[in-house]
UniProtKB/TrEMBL annotation:
Keyword Chloroplast attached: no
Official protein name in the record: protein O-GlcNAcase
Oxidoreductase found in the keyword field: no
Segments crossing the lipid bilayer: none
InterPro entries listed in its UniProt record: GH, Glycosyl_Hydrolase_84, O-GlcNAcase_cat
EC number: 3.2.1.169
Organism of provenance: Frankliniella fusca
Ranges where the GH84 domain occurs: 17-292
């Protein structure tokens, strides 16, 4: 591994090149404390700029006309002062584009008044942002301006001159090549901007796409010629607000340092989670100081380029780990930069810091049969709902694409000539379509009327974000939602109505219609505010209605912003190496921190590999994918020689000596070692002293406690924006499981208090595990009698003859102490029902005769005995044909993790599908609410609706 380069040996960046961070994403803004911490890091790393542009900070965009209060002014002044003390240029950005009337002198005066106020706070650099808005002028503007671009130019130039020509930037509406109409060179909008905007004003640009995989010299030269000035790159390589299942911890990549001479600056718009941006910002700082003159060091061997290199895959599917030994200090290599950043980031994990609030993570919502209104949500950018399907799925699986920050994009590597060193292979995507989701044509989607969600105030507290109630809109069919700290009562919200006959918005478009902005909504009286915990986004469910009557969206687990059970985790200073997690009652949590379990370089490097970049996994993540896929593909080699398939012991033993079989086991051991490393990382992270950092990263690594065709093709093609393939490495691993229609089973609620408790799932051994299974069943359906005269009754009643059924798929889940859950499934339900009627039920009638008064039985026990004597279940033939499998599952009531049983069921369904079964059902008494609720949470639906019989038949396909 290359040694960390000394800062003294790295060329200093040109003073004409600005480099820093733009806080420009959607969702919960950073806190004042976090921004001040950022300024210190930027100073330390040699960066010089920060742009304040949080999309959902209410006086930046939604309420851009409103001046700051005295309290807000103090916080903003403190930020500007802190930036100056660190030598950071603080750009205050305003986004008036949602509802501004460009021709109105009053509107322009409102911008001037707002920026004048901020100027009085000490700010000397400004920006106007016109991104993510509908590119149409109002009727009043059309009478004054020749075009949309002329309107924006007029306002920008006037405001710039009013402020005495400070440092000034503008973000255009066509901010990337993909949005230029019809293209960059022929765009009337961009050409007007370039020719009419005062030359001292910088223009921001995201590259070829919103989230650009690669940035070539040619593309930058093209936009420079059109805009008549070098652009300031608004880089979304590390932005993650468009997919809240992903976080990007990889190094700044796919951008040649030769670009530095072609740009006026680079501003990275990173992850929403502040603590997750250490590597991204740190490596950008290293990149910005390298190869300043844009020329290669000709004294070096020609095989090593000054360009950034993408580590190409090795034959075994991994990526190159070695850093070229002959790199000079002024040459940039992502792996060396990552190594340096990880070494520095490691210190942050041991820095004692407290966190406030429960962990909440947006989750996909399971489709419902009727349109559901959008509830208040922290993320205001959900403007498009798409439906995705898989090749073998019979029904569409809705998936919401939430809008991302103003700009975002990933990258490819460039060669010396600026061309991609790994050109996209679009033909590979054909294979990918077999397993991965595809985005349908625009005509298949119906746009949703945007509504206003709760906006936030990041200038009201040092360490918290304050949420303001949403606005009310006088639309039909209002939905009443009450926010706990709003004393004025319920707030009416609009029902999102599909608008047929219109084209859909792209995923990144947020509130594209001016009439959807707060200026055109009636304001709701609310004098109180709500605190959003630092840990994650706020609460509230967000569901967008689909035109077909189903729904899909990102759901934020319902927890009040200021709930009575709010979790407060103190820092670990003075705790002698032990941390306490305290709830509202002051009780201690489950986790105890051991000093010996501190994070290591290898742990942090693995964390970065698992959550790398939008278009590539790190070498560790790629290796896990490759090995898992190899084991799955070659499993038949082991299966055909296994005793479970009828081989005699001697044949089985001989088969295990087969080199192919031995290789499979060797690779399985290697994968097991990698999963143990991930588990160790999870445990150490959960116990780290920096609780704020833990709360921001925990939901992602917690989700990773899981292990398609197409993962390689996805990341080696630059034809798509990264939200087309959602979920990152976790989703790629899930796609390897043969459960196409089990997406909802991968939706887990994140624990409110970080916990490192883990479970193992394994095939059951009926001989040794049967008593555990029967005991769990007994615990689920408890008896009211202290001394139960019939201890086997519950297991006999609810397990039936499954344990002895042929073609049985049985799995158990266990913690470090005992088995806590089970699934019993048979591939042939017909055979199961036949045996129930002919053998099992008669034997149970003999075992449990109806003899009143013989035992002191409860009414529940009497009902269960009576079931044996009145058994009349008849499952329709059509159900047996479409859902030929039968399943029974259960888990101890003491298991609090809602994902445990889901994970177990996913493994069972995958095993059933691998054996040719694509549908499973279960038959429950209509009065058995416990079981009905259990299977309902697992996504089972009524297969025989309207049936008035004693049994309800639930099922699901996979």
């Amino acid at each position: 591994m290359a040694e960390k380069a000394s800062d003294d040996n790295i060329t200093t960046r040109s003073s004409n090149f600005a480099c820093g961070v733009v806080e420009g994403f959607y969702g919960r803004p950073w806190t004042t404390e976090q921004r001040k911490d950022l300024f210190q890091k930027l100073k330390k790393w040699g960066m010089d700029s920060y742009v304040y542009a949080p999309k959902d900070d209410y006086k930046h965009r939604a309420y851009w006309r409103e001046l700051y209060t005295v309290e807000e002014a103090e916080h903003l002044t403190g930020l500007i002062t802190a930036a100056k003390e660190s030598g950071i240029t603080f750009y205050y950005a305003l986004s008036p584009g949602l509802d501004i009337t460009y021709s109105s002198a009053k509107e322009v005066s409102a911008i001037k008044r707002k920026l004048d106020q901020v100027s009085q706070f000490g700010c000397s650099a400004f920006a106007l942002l016109f991104d993510d808005i509908e590119p149409e002028m109002s009727s009043a503007d059309k009478e004054v301006f020749q075009s949309f671009a002329h309107a924006q130019v007029s306002v920008s130039n006037e405001v710039y001159q009013h402020l005495n020509q400070p440092r000034f930037m503008v973000c255009p509406t066509e901010y990337c090549a993909a949005r230029a109409v019809p293209n960059v060179s022929s765009s009337e909008y961009l050409n007007t901007l370039g020719s009419k905007l005062l030359p001292e004003i910088d223009i921001m640009w995201t590259g070829p796409k919103v989230v650009s995989r690669i940035m070539t010299l040619e593309s930058i030269e093209e936009i420079t010629e059109v805009m008549r000035r070098p652009p300031v790159l608004w880089d979304n390589l590390h932005a993650n607000d468009y997919d809240q299942k992903r976080v990007f911890l990889g190094p700044y990549s796919w951008r040649s340092p030769q670009l530095i001479a072609k740009l006026r600056g680079v501003m990275t718009n990173p992850n929403c989670e502040y603590g997750a941006n250490f590597v991204g910002i740190h490596t950008l700082a290293q990149w910005s100081r390298c190869n300043v003159d844009g020329k290669r060091d000709l004294s070096l061997n020609d095989s090593v380029s000054a360009d950034i290199k993408l580590e190409t895959e090795t034959e075994d599917g991994g990526t190159g780990e070695d850093i070229p030994s002959n790199l000079t200090p002024n040459m940039y290599h992502p792996r060396r930069a990552l190594h340096n950043a990880v070494n520095d980031w490691l210190l942050e994990f041991s820095r004692p810091k407290q966190a406030w609030g429960p962990i909440m993570k947006p989750q996909p919502v399971i489709p419902v049969p009727i349109p559901v209104p959008i509830l208040p949500s922290i993320n205001t950018c959900m403007s498009l709902t798409t439906t995705t399907t898989t090749a073998s799925s019979s029904s569409p699986i809705p998936q919401t694409v939430s809008s991302s920050s103003s700009h975002s994009y990933p990258a490819l590597s460039t060669g010396v000539d600026g061309l991609p060193s790994n050109p996209p292979n679009t033909t590979q995507l054909e294979a990918l379509a077999e397993v991965c989701s595809t985005v349908p044509n625009a005509t298949e989607n119906l746009p949703i009327t945007p509504i206003t969600a709760p906006v936030m105030n990041s200038l009201a507290s040092e360490s918290k974000i304050v949420a303001l109630p949403p606005m009310a809109t006088p639309l039909p069919l209002p939905l009443t939602v009450s926010l706990s700290s709003v004393p004025s009562g319920p707030i009416a919200l609009p029902l999102p109505l599909p608008m047929s006959g219109t084209s859909t918005c792209e995923p990144m478009d947020c509130n594209p219609t001016p009439n959807g902005s707060p200026a055109h909504l009636a304001k709701t009286a609310a004098s109180s505010t709500e605190d959003i915990p630092m840990a994650e986004n706020g609460s509230g469910n967000s569901v967008a209605a689909l035109g077909n009557g189903s729904s899909s969206a990102m759901q934020i687990d319902s927890t009040d912003f200021c709930s009575s059970n709010m979790v407060v985790e103190p820092s670990l200073e003075g705790e002698s190496g032990r941390a306490e997690e305290v709830d509202g009652s002051g009780s201690k949590g489950l986790n105890q921190v051991a000093e010996k379990q501190s994070m290591t370089y290898e742990d942090v490097a693995l964390l970065c590999d698992l959550f790398y970049l939008p278009f590539e996994h790190g070498s560790g993540g790629t290796q896990i994918l490759h090995d898992f896929n190899w084991l799955k593909t070659h499993a038949h080699v082991v299966c055909r020689n296994h005793p479970i398939n009828g081989c005699s012991p001697d044949v089985s033993e001989e088969g295990m000596k087969n080199p192919e079989v031995q290789e499979w086991y060797d690779r399985a051991k290697k994968l097991d070692d990698m999963t143990k490393a991930v588990n160790q990382l999870f445990t150490k992270l959960t116990n780290c002293p920096n609780r704020e950092l833990l709360h921001e990263i925990y939901p992602y690594i917690w989700d990773f406690r899981w292990f398609s065709k197409g993962w390689k093709e996805t990341f080696m093609s630059g034809e798509h924006e990264p939200w087309v393939f959602r979920g990152g490495l976790i989703a790629d691993l899930q796609r390897l499981l043969p459960v196409d229609s089990g997406t909802d089973l991968f939706v887990y609620k994140i624990p409110e208090v970080p916990s490192n408790k883990m479970y193992d799932i394994r095939p059951a051994n009926i001989l040794t595990d049967q008593h555990h299974i029967r005991s769990i069943c007994q615990s689920i359906y408890t008896s009211t009698c202290d001394l139960d005269p019939m201890p086997d009754l519950n297991a006999d009643r609810f397990l039936g003859c499954l344990v002895d059924t042929e073609q049985l798929v049985c799995m158990v889940i266990e913690d470090e102490i005992e088995v806590v859950g089970y699934t019993l499934a048979t591939l042939n339900a017909k055979q199961f029902y036949s045996r129930m009627k002919t053998d099992f039920i008669p034997s149970m009638q003999t075992k449990y005769p109806i003899q009143e008064g013989q035992y002191n039985l409860s009414s529940v026990q009497q009902e269960r005995i009576g079931w044996f004597h009145s058994y009349d279940l008849e499952v329709p033939e059509q159900i047996l044909s479409s859902h030929p499998g039968f399943i029974n599952c259960g888990i101890l009531p003491s298991v609090q993790d809602p994902s445990a049983l889901k994970r177990l069921v996913v493994c069972t369904l995958a095993a059933m599908r691998a054996n040719g079964c694509f549908g499973v059902h279960t038959a429950l008494l209509s009065s058995d609410q416990i079981s009905l609720e259990l299977y309902g949470r697992l996504g089972f639906v009524d297969l025989n609706p309207g049936n008035s019989g004693s049994h309800t038949i639930l099922g699901r396909s996979f």
